[in-house]
Write a structure and sequence with these properties.
Elements: E1 14-20, E2 23-30, H1 80-86, H2 99-102, H3 110-116, H4 129-134, H5 146-157, H6 161-172, E3 191-192, H7 200-209, E4 245-246, E5 251-252, H8 257-260, H9 276-279, H10 281-296, H11 316-325, H12 331-346, H13 352-355
Length: 371
């Protein structure tokens, strides 16, 4: 499977769910706020003291720019270039920390080559179009602000741009890859999902990603990281322990060899997304959009053996839930989908508190401020 994050979420949520006309709607009893005020602050951490920036251009409208294209719309989706021309120009950037990743693209064809050695459709788990068309289309060939990248990917895959904005709230608070000057990633802000314990498979995976990076400056061995006070890992770094997921949208890079049985494991126990989706915001958004479009088209028959067992095309929120939990309308999947829906309905990214990026994280007394 190739979805997003399959482990625990952060934040608090209280809401009532109602079913109207077959669609899951959210009646919010309390708004989820993912900000520094809801996080534990390490007493040894220091605050960034640089002056606040000005968000001069207006943000996107609350309704967004793009809408969901119907099942079957995959065959007429616009190209990279056509979508780049439809992106709304604006300097609005609530996450200047994403600047490097927003300007980084994979080499043309690099992602397609990585996926080509990791077939999804063998054994009938996925529609053959997943390999032959969908993943071959993922390339990350766009640069811009964080929000412009969301727009581009939404246009490319026929999705509402507000869906990407809302999912990014849950997955990373809109940080593509926040990390300290020494390379430590800031947990849950572009990296996450811990192994329960080291294994031979996890060690092979961690050793492999330690040698990869789109930029040489980003090559990093997470197994050797020191313990930080702010943004620390939920474990003590050691051999075989490193993040499973990366990016603003929580893209899973790890692939358990057991998921491929009876076929051989993927090279390096990686699903082909690393380092692209860590080092390039556009690559992460592109891959997320591809997953949701493929799921929405009904191209993941393996989901019929999970959760409620009634996977079918056309259920957007079921697909959003599966991105997180790896199954179909389980309790965990539905809770996650409800959180994303709440973020979408409340457009939390338009609030002043959310747009204050420096209010979302802490500096570390020893290792400085992440960026």
């Amino acid at each position: 499977m190739i979805g997003g994050r399959y482990e625990g979420m952060r934040g608090s949520f209280t809401a009532a769910l109602v079913l109207v006309g077959g669609l899951l709607l959210l009646a919010a009893a309390a708004v989820l706020v993912t900000s520094a005020t809801s996080r534990k602050v390490d007493p040894s951490a220091t605050s960034r003291t640089a002056p606040l920036r000005t968000l001069s251009d207006p943000p996107p409208p609350a309704s967004g720019y793009f809408s969901l294209q119907p099942v079957g719309g995959w065959s007429s989706l616009p190209s990279d270039g056509q979508c780049a021309a439809q992106v709304h120009n604006s300097t609005w950037e609530p996450r200047p920390e994403n600047s490097q990743q927003n300007k980084t693209m994979p080499a043309p064809g690099a992602m397609a080559a990585s996926f080509s050695s990791r077939s999804r459709s063998k054994g009938g788990s996925y529609n053959p179009l997943w390999d032959s068309w969908l993943l071959q289309r993922v390339d990350g060939q766009f640069t811009g602000t964080t929000d412009q990248i969301f727009q581009w990917a939404a246009c490319k895959w026929g999705l509402p741009d507000n869906l990407l904005r809302a999912t990014a709230v849950e997955e990373s608070t809109w940080f593509q890859y926040l990390h300290f000057p020494n390379g430590n990633c800031y947990w849950d802000y572009g990296c996450g999902d811990a192994f329960a314990s080291p294994t031979a498979a996890s060690t092979a995976y961690c050793n492999g990603i330690a040698t990869q990076g789109l930029l040489s400056s980003e090559t990093h061995d997470y197994q050797k990281d020191p313990v930080t006070g702010a943004g620390g890992y939920p474990y003590r770094p050691a051999s075989g322990l490193c993040p499973k997921t990366f990016s603003i949208l929580g893209v899973m890079s790890w692939d358990d060899p057991a998921w491929q049985t009876p076929y051989p494991a993927y090279p390096g126990n990686q699903n082909g997304t690393f380092p692209f989706t860590r080092d390039s915001t556009a690559a992460a958004a592109d891959y997320y959009g591809a997953y949701i479009r493929g799921c929405y088209e009904g191209w993941e028959p393996w989901l019929k053996s999970t959760g409620t067992g009634n996977y079918a095309a056309g259920d957007l929120w079921g697909c959003v839930g599966s991105w997180y939990s790896g199954d179909w309308h389980s309790s965990a999947a539905n809770t996650y989908a409800a959180r994303v829906q709440n973020d979408l309905n409340t457009t939390i990214w338009l609030t002043r508190a959310f747009d204050d990026s420096r209010g979302q994280y802490q500096c570390d007394a020893k290792y400085g401020c992440p960026d």
